[in-house]
Amino acid sequence: MIHSLFLINSSGDIFLEKHWKSVVSRSVCDYFFEAQERATEAENVPPVIPTPHHYLLSVYRHKIFFVAVIQTEVPPLFVIEFLHRVVDTFQDYFGVCSEPVIKDNVVVVYEVLEEMLDNGFPLATESNILKELIKPPTILRTVVNTITGSTNVGDQLPTGQLSVVPWRRTGVKYTNNEAYFDVIEEIDAIIDKSGSTVTAEIQGVIDACVKLTGMPDLTLSFMNPRLLDDVSFHPCVRFKRWESERILSFIPPDGNFRLLSYHVSAQNLVAIPVYVKHSISFRDSSSLGRFEITVGPKQTMGKAIEGVTVASQMPRGVLNMSLTPSQGTHTFDPVTKMLSWDVGKINPQKLPSLKGTMSLQAGASKPDENPTINLQFKIQQLAISGLKVNRLDMYGEKYKPFKGIKYMTKAGRFQVRT
Amino acid sequence: MSSNSFAYNEQSAGGEATELGQEATSTISPSGAFGLFSSDLKKNEDLKQMLESNKDSAKLDAMKRIVGMIAKGKNASELFPAVVKNVASKNIEIKKLVYVYLVRYAEEQQDLALLSISTFQRALKDPNQLIRASALRVLSSIRVPIIVPIMMLAIKEASADLSPYVRKNAAHAIQKLYSLDPDQKEMLIEVIEKLLKDKSTLVAGSVVMAFEEVCPDRIDLIHKNYRKLCNLLVDVEEWGQVVIIHMLTRYARTQFVSPWKEGDGLEDNEKNFYESDDEQKEKADKRKAYAMDPDHRLLIRNTKPLLQSRNAAVVMAVAQLYWHIAPKSETGVISKSLVRLLRSNREVQYIVLQNIATMSIQRKGMFEPYLKSFYVRSTDPTMIKTLKLEILTNLANEANISTLLREFQTYVKSQDKQFAAATIQTIGRCATNISEVTDTCLNGLVCLLSNRDEIVVAESVVVIKKLLQMQPAQHGEIIKHMAKLLDSITVPVARASILWLIGENCERVPKIAPDVLRKTAKSFTSEDDLVKLQILNLGAKLYLTNSKQTKLLTQYILNLGKYDQNYDIRDRTRFIRQLIVPNEKSGALSKYAKKIFLAQKPAPLLESPFKDRDHFQLGTLSHTLNTKATGYLELSNWPEVAPDPSVRNVEVIELAKEWTPAGKAKKENSVKKFYSESEEEEDSSDSSSDSESGSGSESGELGESGEERDSSEDSSEDSSSGQDSESESESGVQSKRAAKKNSKPKGKSGCEDGEKENEKSKTSESSNAESSSIEESSSDSESESDSESEAESRRVAKEKEKKTKQDRNPLTKDVSLLDLDDFNPVSTPVALPTPVLSPSLTADLEGLNLSTSSSVISVSTPVFVPMKSHVLLHRMSGKGLAASYYFPRQPCIFGDKMVSVQITLNNTTDQKIENIHIGEKKLPMGMQMHVFNPVDSLEPEGSITVSMGIDFCDSTQTASFQLCTKDDCFSVSIQPPVGELLLPVAMSEKDFKKEQGMLTGMNETSAIIVAAPQNFTPSVILQKVVNVANVGAVPSGQDNIQRFAAKTVHSGSLMLVTVELKEGSTAQLIINTEKTVIGSVLLRELKPVLSQG
């Protein structure tokens, strides 16, 4: 399946290569560079590139291209999904996934990749198992290793690979037993010029951080499970119980993991918690344009809207902008034409606004489209769909764990057309 | 140390430069880069020294640096000898890094790589399964052709390993060996065949992968495993799921008849989709002729839960399975999941959207409810935008077109001009597809002609041209407008389009056309080739219709064209001149010039670029690229008539047999059933052959029965889960039990059964607990695999029926009853009568057995013989504790060089005997013994069987040890009969002869036997020989010769026994073996037995 993997940074250097079958010359990447040149933007590089003898499948994350070389027919999503899993693993191991970090930890990276694939076929992709095989580097361990000469390769064998619950490592022990669940919902919306909703959906996830001793068996039930229209589970969730009782029953992996992601049915009208008032105008004759936007709360169930940021890609004709925000800070990059405004918290009494003028290229015609505004915000302690966790129970272990549930609503891909 | 690393830093800085230097040296003269080159040598020298030091930390440091070099793509091959020395290092990290290095460079340094092989061979025999597995992994990754036989042997052995993890690695190794040496294909297929029968979820994905790589056309290997794979699917790891689903899709297309009704596809393309759906249902009701094969249904049902997977590849795999094999009315379920994937990363979106695009052409209705999910955001990358646009176009219909057009308006204004252009094309397509909006679209496009952006205008012109071609009559105004645009537009395609349009309609715009020609004639030389051709065309058309005004102009243009640089244009000029300008040479054609040029041209069809992709299987690379990728496997068309569905039944029958209480079965099985028996047992050898007593093996099977039951369509799911939860508690997962309890209200009776079973097995199981727990736990997860909750009423009824049945005869409740109840008609209600081993099937099995011949030694299951029990400790000398032992003739679970021995302990006293264990051992050199777990207590009159393993080193020396109780110690000893030091081997006659040929001379002993002729019938000889020795019969082509093969347990040397009947009631007995001592002893023992009356 996967023949080789090349890691390429944004300046086009191959800084890591790994082969699982016979060695494929790195010159194969030339085809990739060609495509990259043609695409102008990194985002637009096609994920699948055919070359005379190979196929290059790539993902682009953290400003790094992960290019997998394959030789024969294989479901492309198989490779792509795997590459994403690799990136996730790196992130899990090193905190961030960037070129310098990978270069610093090249040995660990190599060891991890070696375990993840055998002859190009995924072998161990569960983070719990991998961490048992190869310990992630921590500052403390690095120091200890240099002094004592011990290693970051686990000396135990990966027993998890053999168990019924391959996602959980064995012999977990904590002094404080805790289980936290974060219900995070994201609103994807497109709002048109007049402020009406073109499309809006809620996508939610439940991320868990479980630190429990032994082999706990958890059940999580909802007040209103019918809300969930489409769900996908972590492999630990027992599907049958969900089907029959709408209860999540599972033996959790150790540590952080995504328990569930869901989609709230489109029939339910989505409450849009913010509105944006805007007036952006270019005049044909003058080289000045007016710009004004105001952000305000709407249907927030009394919760405060925080962490608001506004970003907008201005037309090419805009040379500069002179704006004054009523709160927060703003920047405009004259090269990329990116305007961003970090608003912060919205005070319903005094709505934040950004006003000013734009200077346009002299002689250029007026841009025929107004820029779209991308909005980010956060609302704590609110799940906008109304989803509520009913209770969390633990079986199989005797101690009393500390349980916590947190709700949050965020803007997903939230776009306002002007 | 610190100074050392400092030095390295310096050097590595130099090393960077060396890199460049090295490249230069390889091609250009070495002299220039000599200095640099030598410093490179020095650097590696330093690494070599570190590798040779005896401090692990230095070695580790060196290895880390080398791995760093490999990662950067630098050449580190010259360090090979120094690195390979460390392959047996005790330090686990050094070892791992050496493996990394070895796998990378072994191909280049084949001779040196061989040095490491013995290390892996040794590790292959390690008692720890993980070490065995990793040894196999590395060994098979070393791409050195010389070791192919070693690899083959290792794979064969590993595929029979007790640990599923090792077997999984064996499956991976198959692919590696195949790519190294395709000549091994036949043998590898045998291994694949064996592994396909594996019941472990760990193995399933990997072996199917190997199957796909090595022999994807051997669909016949799947038949018997089809149902098992369907049932295991949910519990296989996610990557395996993808591979299995793709394989099963192909399988289903060859084995089942089409569930689609004729004309289905056409109906879907019709606009009234919703109605047609209802109609379909009605039709289906009317037409009962088609009944879906239950196996077909099983696959569709069992894959459905996987739509909920977090892995996009799995979801896509299920989606394509539904698309290709499910009835059209059921395909709808996949759309929701596919739309969910659109939330994922850009790459995933890209692939999913492509597949949705293909689907939406054929079946709009599937994705129509999700129309808004395909709306484009300004932040999407262009490729995503275009794909979304494509889907929106496919989904457009009268109902939603107005919304869509409004949406398109926004897109046209997008800053991304490429996208805007694509939108304009889309509008054009919508206009042609939906006649109601053609005019609206056309007007909109005309407005766009005044757009400031040239790309937008050009695209609009091209699209308008296509639209006008369909209904030119009423659009004179638009043409005039476009003629005016010619002054401002510079994009060649657009200019060419306008010229063509004017030429076509020159009679409708008689005043403008000549003027346009005049203008373009002026600029002819500076135009693009594309435009030049159209100017020529325009000239020709005008010449024919309006020659008075344009004759001279046209001739001028033709003259210009004659001397053009481009030969296409010169050609065209010559062609047109001959055709339109009358001269004496011009033939008959010029008469028809007008007809030729001004013929009615068919309007172009504006089609989706995804139209022709549907002949590729969805979700494949070939589909994404729209070309056939290497190794693409064509999805066959549905067969007209379904192939025999009973080929998949084998498993059910086998299971039914497995299920009969082992003890009984053994007695019933006559020697003549030998072939079919061994075949079956091989199948389940991983679970049953290791456990000794019948009941022990049953507990392993128990869970599997649950799994089988799921396969039968309407068997009681609840009762099986009840049973499973019991067996789980056996293996120690207490917690699950609590959870399960809630979910098993119905299957009470079933679960009681399970309990009973387990109790029975518990008594004899104690020592096997470890090995069987793996089996149990895997079967436990199987129960979850069945995530079906469609409670069909039929099923419920059946369940009730069964329950009452069980209630009625609670006393006669026993295993076989239960299993019959389960396997009976349920799985295949129509096609299958009660499972009986049909004669034809037996023949099949026989054939299979014959075909599994190979020259490599593979252990087969022993021929059954009555157990001969030997006294170990007499009750008189044991103070009431009696012990006897026998050889169960199974491969020992404690080590593959050991002979397994079962010891039955009896308490004949009237008091408890406590703490029975093995004390001091007095073993001859080399002999080893794996003792049984101490027995805590033995009740009066109680008896217990424990198993142990002894490595006799292929000798008949006695193993003496002490059998101790709490109070006493008794010296006992076991002397093995020579026949028990063997394990039967399956081989073909041909291989037998080959092996025999190699074991002649010293290695051959023979004797003549005389006996009555009735003693020389094949069955009698077989019985007699196997009574004495644990050998396997070799199928023989001649009536007068019988052959038996075995290998010694310790060294694995072959032991070949031949009985050749001569005339006059004599026979010759020949034994060929390397182990001459054992050979002659065996001969001595066989001789009297065979000559006895």
Topology:
The complex is a heterodimer of chains A (418) and B (1093).
Chain A: E1 2-9, E2 14-19, H1 29-39, E3 48-50, E4 55-61, E5 64-70, H2 76-94, H3 99-104, H4 106-116, E6 117-118, E7 121-122, H5 127-133, H6 139-148, E8 178-191, E9 197-211, E10 217-222, E11 228-233, H7 239-245, E12 247-250, E13 255-264, E14 274-282, E15 288-297, E16 305-313, E17 318-325, E18 329-333, E19 338-344, E20 353-360, E21 373-380, E22 389-395, E23 402-416
Parallel strand pairs in A: 8-23
Antiparallel strand pairs in A: 1-2, 1-5, 3-4, 4-5, 6-7, 8-9, 9-13, 10-12, 10-22, 11-13, 14-15, 15-20, 16-19, 16-21, 17-20, 18-19, 21-23
Chain B: H1 2-27, H2 34-52, H3 56-71, H4 80-84, H5 92-105, H6 110-123, H7 129-141, H8 148-159, H9 164-180, H10 185-196, H11 201-214, H12 226-232, H13 238-255, H14 264-269, H15 273-286, H16 294-303, H17 312-325, H18 333-341, H19 346-362, H20 364-367, H21 382-395, H22 401-412, H23 417-433, H24 438-448, H25 454-470, H26 476-485, H27 492-504, H28 512-523, H29 529-545, H30 547-562, H31 567-580, H32 593-597, H33 621-625, H34 650-659, H35 662-668, H36 674-683, H37 685-689, H38 694-711, H39 717-731, H40 734-741, H41 748-765, H42 769-785, H43 793-808, H44 815-823, H45 839-851, E1 870-873, E2 881-886, E3 899-907, E4 913-922, E5 928-930, E6 935-938, E7 943-951, E8 959-964, E9 969-974, E10 982-984, H46 989-998, E11 1004-1010, H47 1018-1028, E12 1032-1034, E13 1041-1048, E14 1054-1061, E15 1066-1073, H48 1076-1091
Antiparallel strand pairs in B: 1-2, 2-3, 3-7, 4-6, 4-8, 5-7, 8-9, 10-13, 11-15, 12-13, 13-14, 14-15
Organism (chain A): Otolemur garnettii
Membrane topology (chain A): Peripheral membrane protein
InterPro entries (chain A): Adaptor_comp_med_subunit, AP2_Mu_C_sf, AP_mu_sigma_su, Clathrin_mu, Clathrin_mu_CS, Longin-like_dom_sf, MHD
